[in-house]
Amino acid sequence: MKRQMIRNSLSKNRLVSAFMAGFLALASALFGAALVLALGVAGSVEGFMERAHTPHFMQMHQGELDYERLNGWAAEQPAVVAWEAIPYLNVENSQLRFGASTLEAEIQQNGFVTQPQHMDFLLGEDGEPVTPRPGEVYVPYFYEAKYRLGVGDTVTVFAGADAGSDSQTVLTVAGAFRDSQMNSTLASSKRLVVHADDYQALAAQVNTAPEHLISFRLQEPSAAAGFEADYFAASLENDGPSLTWSMFRLINSLNDGLTALLFVLMSVVVLLITFLCIRYTLLATLEEDLGEIGVMKALGVNDRHISSIYLGKYRLLLGAGAAFGLLTALLARPAILANVQRSMGEVGAPLLGVLAALAGVALLFGAAMLFVRRVLRRLRTLTPLQALRQEGAAVTSRARPRPMLAPTTGVRVNAKLAWANMRGAPAAHLTILAVALLTTLALLVPFRFGSTARSAEFVTYMGIGQYDLRIDLIGHPDALGASAAISTALSNDPRVERLELYVQEVETALDPEGRTAPIRVDYGDHSAFPLRYAAGRAPETPTEISLSEQNAERFGVAVGATLEVVSGQNGNGTGGHVRVAGAADTAGLTNRTPRATTFTVTGIYQDVTNGGKTAKALPGPTMDAAQPGAMIAVSLAPGADASAMAAAVTSAAAGAQVIDTGTFVQQMLGDLIRVMDGVAWVFAGVAVLLAWLMAGLGVRLILVRERKPNAVMQALGFTRADLRQQYLLRVLIPLGIGVAVGLVLATPVGNLMGNLVFATVGVSGLSLAFAPISTLLGSALVITAAAVATLTTLASTAADSQRRLVARLQA
Amino acid sequence: MSAILKATNVTKRFRHGGTETTVLNGVSVQVSEGEFVAVMGPSGSGKSTLLYCLSGMDTFDSGEVNLAGHDLGVLTGDERATLRGRTMGFVFQDPNLIEALTVLDNVLLAASLQGEVAPEQLLARAHTLLHLTGLEGLAQRSVHQISGGQRQRVSLCRALLHEPAMLFGDEPTGALNARSSAEIVALLEKINAGGTTMLIVTHDPRVAARASRVLFLSDGQVVSDQRLGKELTPEQRERTVADAMMQLEI
Hints:
By secondary structure, chain A is an alpha+beta fold.
């Protein structure tokens, strides 16, 4: 009998039942997909990096290196399992051509390597290290996709900076590879793998200063931080940024991890909406079934048994929805994991992802059923008499009516009746309001992510000031002289609005374990191109310093703490000598007297440049490096072409690395922005669909509940147009309020979610950029979808409303 | 007296699945202004269906119904709704009050929509009707706070507020106890005495006894049209109705 009752209940409101199941199916599909992706990424990254033997610690070094000394030192370190100095031949993008495409607009720095011997393997499609033959080149998958390179295409390298020069080397693309260090666009360099003979020939042709990736594999990846300190203390080659295993893992997993996070957030929103729908429909059903419930109670059927009928119904509905959602997520696995597969080869732990999705969806289902039980608790307080008397207020709360029709006549009566019904049955209307609020948030906030990442201010969250060009002279033999000359030339250029010179030196400080660690300090006027600080502010006096987050963590300091910075000291803590890049033996050694200055830490910022370990200070007595680096920041006048300017400076200033920061960030964050935009469009579609579904469902439920009162009103003279007006108001008013509140909350909620999302790229304290078009369009779409759903639902029920007027009156 | 309602040869069939049932079979009825007509008959005789067809709440398959000069057969559903709102009042067995409104607002509901009478005038009339029906002190109450009999009186006030040309009732005392029934019946009589034309479907001979005419239906046809003269006493009226019912085996 119970089964029959469940069947009857399901067939009574088929459309409503379908909606309920549909919402949970959507939430389950999103959550299942998120878990599949998250587990897939987590499992794949570790496996990929193990197969590739990714270094646990890697120090870039520009210039010659003392191989024997390095080898001797490495042999003495018990933590070291293997080490390798991987030569990297830097090539200017202007010297490269992929097929017919030039790379002048490419922000990635490029270089040639041979296949490493002991670690950092560059893996082909088969998971094995690629082995190019003479004349062949393997390109990273990033370029294979971006420039549509295939086997047989060519990579041309020109001598010098002129791409049109006669001296060139043409290499044939033999395939693509996965690079465990530089797969992602967040890594600003890319490698091209060639045979050793071709490497030697290219080195002679290109004639740039040598660079090495000094790479170490350790007993324990977690020992990398301490190992880095030991490396620096040994005054070994360190003219460049350093990176560790954890940073490589983050870079490899970022885009897909972010997508998984966004899916989880969306599934939570849909689940909340599902809960609202469950509550609304269940209360409406209980009210409709009051008579039957009363009879059952009067006959002695206990509450548990009565509840079990509804539980059975929802178990079936929601179970079907969850199962469908899970199946959808599992069938979509290939698409969900496509990027992981492409970036990392094998998808690790496939079974774990499936099991996690199953467990996750089961959790959603369990949460939904718990919620159903909670709503059904109301039955306990309902007496048989109340139920038999159809006292609906015992099930749903009803506000006491207030006088409102006098003095009112005509059309305004419909508005007042709409308001009276909203007051009288707040649950239904609050549900519409809540769903409108959630769908507005779901629609607006993701678009703001993309807008924020695209905005000009975003760079200031990432350690880059809001300037147009960045000219670096690191490793330049006369960085100060060259930068001064460049600054003078640019100051006279009408296209330049402002420029600022920063001197870069590597000082030292002690970490909490008492080990000396390098700290790269940018000295200059930081108020010229201010950063956004996660905490505190920029330094304003010569004894103040601000640190990147990585440095703050490394030195164990927060805003307000002091940090003793020592200039003129080499890595082992002694004074007197410092090895200068490119110098051999004693030539070039400079006598320096270590000088300690106590700085007050005034601010902490995120930095994606130079391995993320930088500091900012004002010029002062600590500036004394023999061969400092220099950086010139340039902001251009409105209308000036940053790319053209960058190309001009590059060709005029030998040894300077010029970056158009706008293009740099866009390309660096390109994948991220594409993911955010893609997810935003998916969210927008789902939000509009939800608005349409909820309005239609809400109206249909209200119509079902109010069959008889509507019939009475029609009997008394209300036309269908009058009823349509009332329902439109009853939907559009809570909807409009929900959208308005959603618009207001989009900023604080968006900032909260944005900080969660952008924390994955190390950005904190973010304020999302306002996206006016998507805000306006999105709000209009939600309201339009709801209005259309209301009208179509009313129209679909209007046809038989007249025919069945008497039947509804007599019900 | 002129006829306010004239129905000629009205037929109504219901179709359910493959079965067709004729509920009204060529019924002709004429109601003059100021008349109080009661409609009686056994269950399934078609008396409620007749009421709904004559009031425009339901359509009919053939025949003609003219109410207050309007041919109901050519009007759309919304036109009939507007006509009902302007010219008719209804009292149902279930008072069908709107729970979201107070007693006073329920009374004002239908008449307010039409907008033909100034709001202040409507309000005054509403208070007058509530006073007449003994509900003056309940104007601001919720409908949950009043008894079944009181709700039916509110329903009556609502039906009369716009001074309709005709009042229709479908078993207005059907759900009431004897005392409340008597109160409603007395009110109906009083309303009719004031000139309101009424057509009331009832199975209660005490209600029918107050009418000036009683139509008896059986199997979808009018089988008797009994006039009850003013000269008859209430007891004689009740006996006349009871005799007719017995004769017709109703």
